[in-house]
Design goal:
The relative contact order is 0.19. A 6-stranded mixed β-sheet has the order 10-9-6-7-8-11, sandwiched between helices. A 5-stranded mixed β-sheet has the order 3-2-1-4-5, sandwiched between helices. By secondary structure, the protein is an alpha/beta fold. The structure holds adenosine-5'-triphosphate, magnesium ion and fe (iii) ion. Keywords: Acyltransferase, Cytoplasm, Iron, Metal-binding, Transferase, tRNA processing.
Length: about 350
């Protein structure tokens, strides 16, 4: 099966061509156009994002087809992110995918964006398959999942307030870094002294055993306040910034790693799969690997291009859904919020 996949949920217009199976997906082309325009506003402006997708979607799809040296006639199905995200942005992808599918007489399949993030790693690491513990850390989500099989996701923990990427971006803003600030903060933290600001690892000791409220949940808004206070109390703020960045990053990563390891141990998992833009963070991946090793768990992380938003991961998830015989109706619509299909909550 060969498919064309589209992703327009936020500020990346992306298209990819994939072939093969969900067990062995082959990426034939991937085009990602990031909307730089939002940088000046310090955050994504939804109305502008939709307009930018409208301008970009046709050339991005054409380029992806050309790079894969195929035409629409060679495509068996069209996959598109339909939830969650900015509704106006999602609608551009959904409308275009449905129009293409109708015109070419091909099936269309709507994909959940976070299921896409979960499938990103398998594109490069054939062993990143269930069962595993998954940590999805992106701009809008922080999800700790036990993945028994593809399509069977048990939600163990989530954030009580800010998502991990959102926390990075807000802390970066307090440190005067450009938007989105995650990678800039990681860079700045490299020259920071880890002993200077030992911020409390949020919710680390909340809940003592599986089943306790907060055993797996995280919270980052307090950490953001700690960063604000540190910037206000700094005598020489410029000199202090790398140390504050390091303290913030260490505390956030410390909590994420501890909770993920707890989950892997409790469920006897020997694989940990990371996904989402924050999985670009080298310190997070290194810390997870070091702690994973202690419990005999191997850690898989996507490369940056596949960790942040892209259509390849949507295509990989779509291969699995299509193999199960799933197709979307012509009534497929965009939704700003929606649980991942197949996700149950631990109770
Ligand atoms: P969602 O997937 O929840 O809808 P999103 O699609 O906006 O949100 P992604 O594209 O997966 O999120 O990730 C973007 C986030 O990743 C941003 O918050 C960004 O700052 C963060 N990020 C990217 N690189 C790094 C890094 N090296 N360290 C920390 N955070 C990073
Ligand atoms: Mg983005
Ligand atoms: Fe995303």
């Amino acid at each position: 099966m060969r498919l064309l996949a589209l992703e327009t949920s936020c500020d990346e217009t992306s298209a990819a061509v994939l072939s093969g199976t969900s067990a062995a997906p082959a990426l034939e082309s991937l085009v990602i156009l990031s909307q730089d325009v939002h940088t000046v506003f310090g955050g994504v402006v939804p109305e502008i994002a939709s307009r930018e997708h409208l301008t970009a979607v046709v050339p991005v799809v054409e380029r992806a087809l050309a790079d894969a040296k195929v035409s629409l006639a060679d495509i068996d199905a069209i996959a598109v992110t339909h939830a969650p995200g900015l509704v106006g942005a999602l609608l551009v992808g959904v409308s275009y995918a449905k129009a293409l599918a109708t015109a070419a007489g091909k099936p269309v399949i709507g994909v959940h964006h976070m299921e896409g993030h979960l499938f990103a790693t398998v594109l490069e690491h054939a062993d990143a398959t269930p069962p595993f513990t998954a940590l999805l850390v992106s701009g809008g989500h922080t999800l700790l999942l036990d993945v028994e099989a593809w399509g069977s996701y048990r939600l163990l923990g989530r954030t009580r307030d800010d998502a991990a990427g959102e926390a990075f971006d807000k802390a970066a803003k307090l440190l005067g870094l450009p938007y989105p600030g995650g990678r800039h903060l990681e860079q700045l933290a490299r020259s920071g002294d880890p002993k200077r600001h030992r911020f409390t690892k949020p919710m680390l000791n909340a809940g003592q055993k599986p089943g306790d409220v907060d055993y797996y949940d995280v919270s980052f808004s307090g950490l953001k306040t700690a960063v604000l206070l540190a910037t206000q109390q700094a005598v020489d703020l410029e000199a202090e910034k790398p140390h504050i960045a390091r303290g913030f990053q260490d505390a956030l990563i410390g909590t994420l790693v501890a909770k993920t390891i707890r989950a892997a141990k409790a469920h006897g998992r020997t694989k940990i799969v990371l996904g989402g833009g924050v999985a670009c963070n080298g310190a997070l991946v290194d810390a997870m690997r070091a702690e994973g090793k202690k419990i005999g768990a191997e850690v898989f992380a996507p490369t940056p291009r596949l960790a942040t938003d892209n259509a390849a991961m949507i295509g990989a998830a779509a291969l699995f859904r299509l193999e199960r015989g799933e197709r979307s109706e012509a009534t497929l619509n965009a939704h700003s919020a929606m649980p991942i299909p197949g996700m149950t909550t631990a109770s």
